[in-house]
Design brief:
Elements lengths: L1 H22 L2 H10 L5 E6 L1 E3 L12 E3 H14 L1 E2 L2 H9 L8 E8 L2 H14 L4 E4 L11 H10 L25 H16 L3 H15 L15 H9 L3 E4 L12 H19 L5 E3 L7 H9 L4 E7 L11 E5 L5 H13 L7
Parallel strand pairs: 1-5, 1-10, 2-3, 4-5, 5-6, 6-7, 8-9, 9-10
Bound molecules: zinc ion.
Zinc ion (ZN) binds next to strand 5.
Length: 351
């Protein structure tokens, strides 16, 4: 409960301080250097764009509200030359000489709200973006396991304490309470423990969690739908770049050899057959990567691959390890502050 409480407290303090900091020009001063630097290329990461806070009850860090998204785009449009990733990669490699720095907007996973909420706002503001799609079950996509875990926690009817060994996650912090803040902490703890499990154990463990929490089986607002194949076609037809994001969104570091290659190559092939165009880019699922994973992307001939390592990219950046900046769910003042912090920090190299 402590973590979520601290986050809520920080949010409340920020809501008071942030407009004051913005009003005296602190954010603009912090950004003035980075915004004039055309020798770096910035990529922003989004996952979901939501209409109501309720759609992401435990603030997973993967959602940005539509009004915040719009104001962030308006700020970006005023300061950067925004290009799809494949185009920016070429321009940057060959020596970008434009008056403004390059920036690319990226979306991971392939949620339906990317098509229904994000794409219309992008078009209204007049900006391109690149969308990285997980292709497993694309004809009738099931919700992602982390969304099913969140849903199970939110709808849980359990009353007695939860035992982490009972659900197959020994050592995980599984304090169960019906209080909303505690539920949020439980969802975060379960999801991060699940990410560390061997691939074959993830789905059986999710099923045990669902059974133990006795959650409602029917889909609800916390079970966000994915785009299906027609949705991906529609997004592409609107002029947006489509990239690959694996077949089953596994931790690629847990795969090797043909099984690793298949996750990457098959997701590209599926999208190329669906769209009838080359798919040059890949985004590593969950930002999980190591040297064999990066070399696999290179050997398969991807033009570039995206990490979730925080930072911007200089001209000598490895195109298979492009860094990005996660976008906070904040109005433009906080976005500028988070952005300035990320632009000025010394990013650590990927593991
Ligand atoms: Zn992803």
């Amino acid at each position: 409960m402590i973590r979520l409480f601290e986050r809520e407290l920080k949010r409340a303090v920020k809501a008071v301080l942030s407009p004051a900091i913005e009003a005296v020009g602190v954010n603009d001063r912090a950004l003035s250097g980075p915004l004039a630097d055309t020798g770096r290329w910035t990529l922003l990461t989004y996952h979901r764009i939501i209409q109501q806070v309720d759609e992401d009850p435990y603030r997973s860090g993967m959602s940005v509200r539509a009004d915040h998204f719009r104001s962030q785009l308006e700020f970006i449009a005023g300061h950067f030359d925004v290009r799809p990733v494949h185009e920016a990669a070429d321009l940057f490699r060959t020596g970008w000489t434009g008056p403004r720095p390059l920036l690319s907007i990226t979306f991971d996973d392939g949620y339906l709200d990317n098509l229904e909420v994000a794409a219309p706002i992008l078009s209204q503001v007049g900006l391109p973006a690149s969308f990285y799609i997980t292709v497993g079950g694309l004809d009738a996509p099931a919700p992602f396991w982390w969304d099913r875990v969140t849903h199970a926690v939110r709808t849980a009817r359990r009353r007695e304490p939860l035992d982490s060994t009972e659900i197959g996650l020994p050592g995980a912090e599984c304090r169960w309470s019906t209080a909303p803040l505690a539920r949020g902490d439980l969802a975060h703890a379960l999801i991060s423990a699940l990410w560390r499990l061997p691939e074959a154990e993830v789905e059986p463990t999710v099923a045990r969690i669902q059974a133990a929490l006795d959650g409602a089986a029917s889909p609800g607002p916390t079970l966000p739908p994915r785009m299906d194949r027609d949705g991906v076609r529609a997004l592409h037809a609107r002029g947006f770049e489509i990239g690959a994001h694996s077949v089953s969104h596994v931790n690629l570091c847990l795969r090797e050899g043909d099984a690793l290659r298949a996750e990457m190559a098959d997701s590209r092939r599926d999208l190329e057959q669906t769209l009838g165009v080359p798919v040059p880019g890949f985004a590593y699922p969950g930002g999980r990567l190591d040297t064999p994973v990066v070399e696999c992307a290179r050997e398969l001939g991807f033009a570039y691959a995206l990490t979730t390592d925080i930072g911007t990219n200089r001209r000598d950046a490895d195109p298979m390890r492009l860094r990005r900046i996660g976008s906070p769910d904040s109005p433009v003042a906080d976005f500028k502050r988070a952005f300035a912090r990320a632009l000025t920090r010394d990013a650590q190299p990927a593991a």
